[in-house]
Sequence to fold (294 residues):
Amino acid sequence: MSEPLRLMAVHAHPDDESSKGAATMAYYVKEGVEVLVVTCTGGERGDVLNPVAQADVDAVGIAAVRRREMAEAVRILGVQHAWLGFEDSGFPEGDPTPPLPEGCFAALPLEEVSAPLVELVRAFRPHVMTTYDENGGYPHPDHIRCHEVAMEAFTTAGDPAAYPGTGEAWQPLKLYYNLTFHRARVTAFHDALLDGGHDSPYGEWLEEWEGDDAYRVTTRVCVDEFFPLRDEALRAHRTQVEPDGMWFAVPTHMQREIWPTEDFQLAVSHVPTQTPETDLFAGIRGDVSAGDAP
Fold:
């Protein structure tokens, strides 16, 4: 009997897992797939974006609060979880831009921050990995470094000569980029809100959007049944999310009707597959034993 399929989602901060692909992860958990979320940093330099959480942060510190929030989101989604253990880099702003804090995730050498993830890949043995594109989804230093670390682990974990002492080699088969926000999806929500007589938070964003990114969407996983669970997990991150904020501007029933999928870009595949896809494990199910890597 073959082992279960395994999915690893690599994220920069606690809360990223709930805003990017959470419904997909919950769906695969229900289908019997083993899902591991890896969080690269503790989010220690994140701002408190929801005033109601400030008292908790004042009492025990933001690092402790965000760990507690992460544990609740993990419980809601039913996934496994691992901390990579690095320090949040913050989002340096100003002109000139200040240097990154010494010793933070984005400032350390790539091999140093990649080694723990290579070890996790070799221990968990995912068939599929998800992460951000080369721009990090948005240009936060930790998101960009998360992309670099995930790519390094995906590329080298299968090489027995790479990263000695981090376990037996294992080659994941596919790697995807999360495409939570792309132009067609944002436009659909914007138009639906306006048509329904609601205010839209997306107007200014769309005015500044350059180019058409529709070509990037290779894979749409229909997971609208799990949107309420996704939203519950996102609300668990109270320091980062206001319950009635932008993330929840589009009512769930409207989302399910207009855009019932979570979308991804297939970045690398070591198995034959045809796009568009409806399953992150397309090309793996039935063709590759779930217990073996090539």
Observations:
- Residues 6-180+217-269 form a domain with the Rossmann fold fold (CATH 3.40.50.10320).
- The first helix runs from residue 16 to 19.
- Confidence is low (pLDDT under 50) at residues 289-294.
- The two ends are 18 Å apart (CA to CA).
